[in-house]
Structure formats: C-alpha cells, structure tokens
Amino acid sequence: MMEEAIFQGIWFEIDTDNNEAKVIQYKNKNKYKDNIEIPQSVEFDGIVCLVRSIDENAFYGCDRLLSVTIPNTVTSIGSMAFYGCSSLSSINIPPKISCIDLGVFRGCCGLISINIPDGVTCIDAAAFKDCSNLASITIPNSVTSIDGYAFCGCTRLTSVIIGKKVCSISHNCFSGCRKLVNVICLADNVPNIAKDAFMDSLIEFSSLHVLNSTIDLYKNSVPWNEFNKIVSIREDNLNREFEFDGVWYKYVSIMNEVEVIKYKDNQYIGDIQIPKFVEFEDGIGYVTSIGEYAFSRCTRLTSITIPDSVKYIKNHAFEYCDKLTSISIPNSVTSIEREAFQFCRGLKSVVIPRSVMDIGCEAFCGCINLSSVKIPNSIVDISSSAFLACFQLKSITIPDSVKIIGPSAFSGCKSLSRVSIGKNVTNIRYQAFEGCPKLTNVFCYANKVPITSEDAFKDSCPEKISLFVPWELVAAYKAECPWNQFDYIGDLREI
Q: Global pTM?
C-alpha cells in the first residue's frame, strides 16, 4: 500500500508492504529550503520504513536549499532530483548509489566540491552541468562511462581525475571548462572519447597525466593529443619523498596521490598552506592525506589550510600543536584517525564536516580550550576518549546517526552542562561522561533505553542532573541503573 506523508518537514511516499520510503516533492507548490537532513527511517501507522530513494525532481528548483544530508540507506537518486538548487553548497552521495542519473545536480552552482563514492559505475548526461563553482572532481575507479554534457559549463573546474575503468567519455562531457589546468587519466586503456569532449575548454594550455604504458597512444589520439603537454605517471615514484614550497610530501599510489609528511630535520612554523597539486621535476602529485605525525609537536604552527582534495587526517597528525586555535576541515575528509589533534591546547572550535565517517580514539583528547564542536550526522561510533579532558566544552549534541558512545568519550569535560543524545544510540560505554561535575541536563531521544554502563556518569553528580526522555520510556528509565540515580526524570515534551 502506498501513502504520502510528511515527517520532519520532508514529504515521503510510504510503501508499507515493503517497509520502504521515498523522498518526494513538497506539496502545495511549496519548496524545500535551508538545511535538510533526511532521516534513515520514518514511522507510519506503527510501521518503520527505511528511506531507500529520492524521487526524480524531488528538490527541483529549490533555489533556497542550502544543504542536504542523505542517509546511507538511500540507494538511488532520481533524475533531476536537485536540478536548479542554485544555493546548495553541501550534499553527500551515499555509498550504495550506483549511477548519477540524468541532470541530478545540474545548475547547482553553489557546489564547490562533491565526493563521488567508489561504487558508482556511470555518470549520466548533464549530471553536473553548469555547476559553475565546482573546482575539482575525482571520478572513482568504479566508473565505466561518462555521458554527454556531464560536466559541461563547470567554468571554475581546474582539475579532473579520471579513474582506471573509464572506457567511454561522450560528447561535450567537459566542454566550456575554460579554467581546466590538469587532467589525470588513470585508465588502463585509452578511453573511447568524443572529439568534442573538451570543446572550448582551452586544453591547448592544459596538462594531461597518463600511465607510462599508454602515453604514446594518447599522443596519437584525438582529442587527447590536443593537450599542451602529456606527462607520464611513473610507478617508480611510489614512496618517493620530495619538498614543494616548504612542505614535504611522499608519493603513496600510482594515481599520483601524495601525502604530507613530517618536515626533515626541522618543524613547520607559522601559517602553512597545502595546495591540491604539487609539482616536481618528473610530474605532478595530488594531495590526498595528512600523514602520521606530519605536524606533530609543531609548537609554532599557527594556522593550516587543508585543500578539499584531502581524504584522510592520519594518526597523530597535529598532536601537541599548542598555537593552533582553529582548523577548517574540508568536506572531502572521510576519516580523522586516532590522536590526530590530541593536546592541541590552543584549539577553541572545530566543525567536523558531514563527509567524516570515523573519528579515531583520543582524536581531540586534551584539547583543554575546545569550547565548541559539531559532530556530523555521519558518525556511527564515537570512539574511546575522543573528547576526553576537553575542559571548556559546555554542551554536546550526539546526532541520530550515532549508535555507540565509547568508553571515556567525554570523560573529564569539566564544563559540560548539557548533553543531547540522538534517537539511535543503543550503547553508552563505561565512564563515557565520567567526571563532568557541571552536567545539569541530559536530553535522551533514544527509541529504547540505551544499554548503559553503571559508571557512565561516575563522579558527575547524577543526583543533581535532570533527565528528559520520550514520555513512553519514563518508567523504564526510572527502573534502570544508572539512570535511576538522576535527580529528575521527565518527559521531553516538558522542554
């Protein structure tokens, strides 16, 4: 049976027979606007339905839409779903999407970057046409075909990486990309390409980077041979270390990916800007990660600019950088590894983008002046001691995506007074909120009473804390330890 209903300001088509839901256009000629967060599931007549798809034209012409968070349950996005969303600046493509359909993001001129997940096999016609602020694009190794006009009119596009399985590039695919500087084509064989694929993109001033084994084929193939220069990607560059503009790098893959590494016999100081691309005598490298210990104990590092090509911030990358007061983590980063920012004592605020799927153990441990952190609705587990001893942290919101709050995750946060726990948290581990003596209010939206260690709130004076939960679970919390130690347990509707 199909029904239509609105949840959290979003319209859905509900299929109760298959327990599935699809995002559809807003009714009554209204449009979606501002920041939209699509839930993983919706409940209709007592039946929980997973959100599996976004209908074609669902957000068509929503020119006041700013950002959209799509849950990983979504497996398809219909054609022209976000066509003309000119103010859209942030959106994620879930990992189970296999095709970027016709015109899905056409005219989204607010997008600066977007991550196409490995698993997508085709990019349909005009999928990103007229995304005029898109600066770079990486087409993953899973993609086999790029249809006509896919990136046509991306007038600020400077770099393109084409994955190794691409075998077909259709007409006008990159036409009108007049700022294109570098195209890196990792295809095992020269793709079948339309002669006008790069029409009016001034490729006579651009560089093409290809595998050494195919370079002669490209030099004799139209339109590839129209590039200003064709440069070989050399496999023997692996693990090669080199310096560029005062920063040290290491090649980490034949895809010309490079990683920032520790300064040789010295420390990085002052303001550091890391570019997307680095050049040296034999070619070009694409910066994709900040390596282990790269900036560790750089006590005179005052600021860092990380490009939106970086995917990983690795173990201990910025630990003990005392003068680093803020950091902008780009929307390309998917993983912040263990102890990455531990004991950055000057760090005051951090926004973790929605692209991040994993925050490692002790990632922000000992950031004693960190007073503000935003955890995105993409994190499933908050690792052990992730924010331990963040003395100035006053409130924290655990998003609905989180299922587990790890051991000592917020232990020793002495100024923490307010905690909001998302509806999908199922487990709160030992000493998660231990030693938080100023904690006065906990708002727990969990659908069921989480399995909670008895010492989760040890030394946090639970007898002075007010707990607010769904009304139907009040009695259950009053019967469960350690929740029954709280001063007051009430209904969330009282807020």
A: 0.62
